[in-house]
Amino acid sequence: MSALTVDMEQSLAAVLAEHERGMLARAVVIAELLDDEGERSLSVLTTPGMPEWDALGLCRYGALSIEGPTAAFFTEAGE
Fold first, then answer.
1. Backbone phi, psi, residue 51, to 5°
2. How far apart are CA 59 and CA 31, in angstroms?
3. pLDDT per position as a tens digit, 24-44
């Protein structure tokens, strides 16, 4: 368990609690980063101890929850 993932978990839990979103159980954070030279990279951070298959499941569920409403919006807009 790295200090980065522990800090990320604590920070995210504090923000969610402050906005009365409930208690953080698990999280996957996907961030695009820019280095000093402007090169982009993708960073995937999970709460400590999360198995890869759980992270994949959360990511897939999140993608599906976005894809459905977005597809419906574009389908309705084209009619």
1. -65, 150
2. 13
3. 999 999 999 999 999 999 999
